[in-house]
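Notebook p. 47: complex prediction with zinc ion.
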Amino acid sequence: MTDASSTPAIPVTVHRSDYRAPDWSIPDIALDFALGIDATKVGAVLSVVRDIDAPVPLLLRGDGLTPAAVRVDGEVWNDWRMEGSDLIVDLGERVAATVEIDTVIDPASNTQLSGLYASGGLLCTQCEAEGFRRITFHPDRPDVLSRYKVRMQGDKAAFPILLSNGNCIDQGEAGSDHWALWEDPWPKPSYLFALVAGDLVVNRDSFTTMSGREVELGIWVRDGDVDRTGHAMQALKDSMAWDERVYGREYDLDLFNIVAVSDFNMGAMENKGLNIFNTRYILADPDTATDVDYDGVEGVVAHEYFHNWSGNRVTCRDWFQLSLKEGFTVFRDQSFSADMGSPAVKRIEDVRLLRAAQFPEDAGPLAHPIRPDSFQEISNFYTATIYNKGAEIIRMMATMVGPERFRKGTDLYFDRHDGEAATCEDFVKAIEDGAGIDLGQFRRWYEQAGTPRLKLSLAEEGGHWSLDIVQTVPPTPGQPEKQPMMMPLRLAAFATDGSGDALADTLVMVTGATQRIALGTFAARPALSVNRGFSAPIIVDFERGPGELAWLAAHDDDPFARYEALQQLMLDTLVAAVSGKAGDNRAVIDAVGQTLEGAASDPAFVAEAVLLPSEAFIGDQMVTVDPDAIRRERLALQATIGAALETKWRAVLAGKAPPATDLSRKAKGGRRLRGVALAYLAATGADDASALAFRIFSDADGMTERQAALATLAHGDSDERIAALDIFYQRYRDNPLVLDKWFQVQAWSLRADTLDAVKELAQHPDFTLANPNRVRSLYGALTGNQAAFHQADGEGYRLIADLVIALDPKNPQTAAKMIPPLGRWKRFDDARAAMMRAELERILARPGLSRDVTEQASKSLL
Ligand code: 0A1
Ligand code: ZN
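Predicted complex, structure tokens below:
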């Protein structure tokens, strides 16, 4: 069954400038749920208070709802009408009233996974951004905050566990039913409402807050999964302690519950006191989860927990302010993960993600500022720009003022706006006032889309060297002209021959379109280390020879800058090769070899540094992306480096893998480096490579080694490949999260027939469009596989368009997320561009398309 008909494609554009404070506030809400999988009755009692002088009707949003009954102050009320799917209640001259509305919803047919839905016998909710209106009529805007009391009643056997926000204040039995009454003392917007009912088991623990309060913690999962919740629980306790220590923020309820569900559109959701998670970010044990999965659990648990202050206690005034909570919270979870592990490696991972997901967004038709000016469907704005670029903007503020002053700013922000629905401007003002800095020009980061570029060159006069900067911000849709941004640029300069003064780590403020920075006196051109730690989220154009890059890769005292130098060297080599200007690979080979010398002391860093840039990132450097040449040249360089340093790769692999249960930084780094070494060795085509990969696969005591070996085998064409895929499938066919990996490694394969394999896998009995994780594991992996997705006959584009068309009626949010890869057509040759556009047009020609897909596909054509 499908229910997308409840969200018709009316492309209404909402503008930030149209914001008006609500006419009515709702201090209290009581909800009464009579639970059933196919029919849940919802009784809502809203205490409404008029906030403006003149009479005005009460506008309550609905999505797919019909009011079964409306009462006002206890009386049956007929003064209401439907306007589209919304309910307008005329309350005459009243300044306050109790409005009661009954509705009936069908969770089992809610395939959109927004509102109240069924996931494997469980009932759960997802209300951000506009899902609450699919449960009951309500203003459903984040600036209407209410205290919630929730009564839920249902069959004891079907729903033994009944959870909602806040504290359980009463419960009882009623025949074969039971009921629970929950109360959340903290006023909250409707998007933070949550309810879960079903058969769950709990991992219980507790945390004592800095003021000595005992908080009961519960992680609720299906029977059989509880043994895989230990890492999430530890991450939760670490997050609670970290937020107290670093931001002075204490948890504010006696209970904190997390529920894991298998069908979920996103990673997780920060509902007050009742976080709901995709199982993928809760369940982990060494046999089924990789080190990357473990880090994902830790990061997402922290992210949702941190929202309790940055999001819940201080929420957003309207959805244009989404980055207020998301950018800040991502910055907080990034800082937490850096503190828990390796700051340098974490920074490398975050920058890699920004470049892979956000830079292309900023360079394409869907580019938008971190505070957008308009949207049609807010679900389309949960983007890498709002989240990851948003985090970079917060990070720049922290960099400019330093940790103590930044803390003064955030304290002031929480003090000023606790209990409020705030704006991005409120945040900037609090940092400005609390930290004592003028952020006038800096505010442009909230207004202007596009990744700024700094073109750098060195100039010399009488032994004095300086750096010349030319800043440009590219035009983006709706923003043809741009002003220069203000940004902190960390740099250092080294005399590579040991003569002259080195310029130690310095923070300079870039503000102009052109600017000159004095570097000091050097006998010869210094090696410049620039945008150290990626202090600004920009693209730097700076021509440097292989010698200088190799020197920096070996000598720079900033690990991130060492990583950057080696990556740039690899990138320059690859871009030259793709453009038919293949040169000498000696500098790259030597630099990789030299970097590998540090493997024993910091294997995690070394593994990141020696990894070749992705095919997509190589493509991003070119005027017209040539996916086939990129695939060919990248594989060739991998084989060259693999062969030239074969003994080193073999030495890495000859050592014993750290035990899978060892999750120390060193052990994780060791496993990561082994994975990279295996890939280099396999790329050489060495006779024993497949056998070695198969042995690692078979002997592995955990998923990190097992998956790395399987992925390597999946690229090749050996009997071992077929055997390993089969063994893996048979062993894990009943574990959905691991089965996702089985689909994913095949869709990631660098084989020439990957697209055919994907088509076949889509027909596999274990493939389903009903589960977003499964959809992403196959089709999401395909769009990340540049040469496969962009196969010259356009078959990849057809496959994705077919998927969007099939998925949209069921789950428009997930369908719309598959469109941006088709929107990158301007970056490809005319033949590919025409085929990509044709698929976007084919999607748009479908009748009854959701608002989500309509907005993404139509904007992608511009
Ligand atoms: N606020 C959540 C993200 C989220 C947004 C929308 C959702 O609806 C499907 C779910 C989750 C976060 O940042 O973690
Ligand atoms: Zn978030």
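Notes: Confidence is low (pLDDT under 50) at residues 1-8. The two ends are 34 Å apart (CA to CA).
Next step: compare against the earlier run before touching the bench.
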